[in-house]
Amino acid sequence: MKKTLAWAVTAGIAATCTLGAALPAMAAADTTSAAVTSAATPGSTFDTSRLSPEVKALVDEMLANLPADWQERRDAAAAKYGIHETQWADLRNSIINPGDHQCGNTAFRNYANSLRTNIQDQDLRDWLDVFGAFDIPTYDALFFGSESKSNTFGVNGEYTNELTSEGKNLKKFWDIYSDDIQLMPMHGREVYSSPERVARVLSLMFGIKDEPAVLRLAKVVISLVNADPVLQGGDNPLFTFNAFAFSEKGSPQPYGISDRIVMGDGILQALKALGLGDTAPRAVLAHEFGHHVQYEDNLFTNTKLTGPEATRRTELMADAFGTYFLTHSRGEALNAKRVLGSEKSFYEVGDCSFSSPGHHGTPNQRLAASSWGASVANTAANQGHILPSLKLDELFEAKLPDIVKPDATN
Fold first, then answer.
1. Rounded to 10 degrees, what is the CA torsion of 246, 248, 253, 254?
2. How many domains does the chain have?
3. Structural contact between residues 339 and 283, judged by C-beta atoms closer than 8 angstroms
4. With the C-alpha atoms ordered 266, 78, 318, 165, is the resulting torsion angle positive or negative?
5. How far apart are CA 37 and CA 44, in angstroms?
6. Which of 17, 40, 73, 326 is close enough to 129 for a disulfide, judged by CB 3.0 to 4.6 Å?
7. Among the residues of 82-210, which ranges form H helices?
8. What is the DSSP letter of 49?
């Protein structure tokens, strides 16, 4: 049985392990080997001898104080909570013939790659990957985030008013129960300024129950993050490069996490860097709320599609639902041309991983789904009428084959 976690894509959280008491007690790691296998780059190893003396001392301290099976625990936690099931993961393979579709790298993906290559100390970056440091703000938001009037959105709070206002409008617009959906930010520096917040995440990741021990590890991780100024103490977009919706609706083993939408600073920074900061942040939020419509209407399971094609369907549907809201006269009432210019944000994050379980649609397919959503709103005979969500889904299901049809030109 799977819970459902929708990021800027939708992914399953496989309930495959239990952390804590069921795991072995904390034990000293074997530090006699100079290299550790990377989770981010399977099969590769990172040699501590290449690190600066200061960073090497911190890495060695981490290795000496983590449980002996820390890598297995890290991977089990990531699988259980779906931490790596995002469109930023290293997607591979193919389900439909890539030659049938126009697909390639986009400016968004090139920007994401540049974030990693711009880090001055690449060996430090790799060790932060290995220790799961880039995942810590995601864990923090997922398990410990909450909606509050004091929350801000964006590194400098620049998106607070528009996203907070839109969150309220989305609840009024859609015909689902949404009073329990919380909208919250994901900040990097804020998390990495608190050893206690980092420690509670490390406890989740590695199953460490010794509070003084995990607090010491948290301080080491924070020192590693602060070792390269490019990482900005956690404000580098890499730490918060995500947006996701979460619901435990129908889960037989709930964690007790409320329905939520999390907006990471890194996504907002990326949109601005690419010139998509106009309506794109609102488009991302509307997309994520579209996933909550799917949760409430049971649209994740109401399909015969499986694997990558099922994920692609829900992602394209969320694109369409989000744009319908943005352009509807009773939604955000935004000009369709303006919205679709910013909806390029979904074009930009389209992917070519045709057979990956996380395939979300090619760039052209994502833009086509958004364009269709706008057309439904703009061509309606009664501009003041909001289609019931199940009726909009019915129309989308009929349109889906056209949205995903081959578009390559020979």
1. 80
2. 1
3. yes
4. negative
5. 6
6. 40
7. 107-117, 122-130, 136-144, 160-173, 189-192, 195-206
8. G
Torsion angles phi and psi, residue 222, rounded to 5 = -60, -40
- Residue 243 within any structural domain of the chain: yes
Q: For every one of its 410 residues, what pLDDT tens digit does the chain have, with 9 covering 90 and above?
A: 234 444 333 332 222 222 222 222 223 333 333 455 444 443 345 578 889 999 999 999 999 999 999 999 999 998 888 887 655 333 222 333 444 445 556 677 778 888 888 999 999 999 999 999 999 999 999 999 999 999 999 999 999 999 999 999 999 999 999 999 999 999 999 999 999 999 999 999 999 999 999 999 999 999 999 999 999 999 999 999 888 889 988 888 888 999 999 999 998 998 898 887 778 899 989 999 999 999 999 998 888 887 888 888 998 999 999 999 999 999 999 888 777 765 555 545 545 554 444 556 677 888 899 999 999 999 999 999 999 999 999 999 999 999 988 765 55
The reply to whether 410 falls in a domain is no
| Within a domain: 366 | yes
Tokens (6 digits) for 8: 């800027």
| Dihedral pair phi/psi, residue 72, rounded to 5° | -65, -40
Q: State how far the Cα of 265 lies from the Cα of 241, in Å rounded to an integer.
A: 7
**Amino acid letter for position 16:** T
C-alpha neighbours within 13 Å on the C-beta side of residue 242 = 33
> Residue 383 is encoded by which pair of tokens?
């501009």
Residues in Cβ contact with 279 at an 8 Å cutoff, skipping those fewer than 6 apart: 326, 332, 334, 338, 339, 341, 342
Indicate the SS3 state at residue 244.
strand
CA distance 285 to 371: 17
Report the distance separating Cα 366 and Cα 313, nearest Å. 10
Residue range of the domain that includes 93:
2-403
Tokens, residue 316: 């394209």
Strands 45-47 and 243-247: unpaired
For residue 289, the one-letter residue type is F
Q: Taking the CA atoms of the chain, what radius of gyration do you get in angstroms?
A: 21
pTM of the model: 0.83
- Give yes or no for a contact between 265 and 188, defined as CB atoms under 8 angstroms apart: yes
Within a domain: residue 367? yes
Look up residue 243 and give its amino acid: A
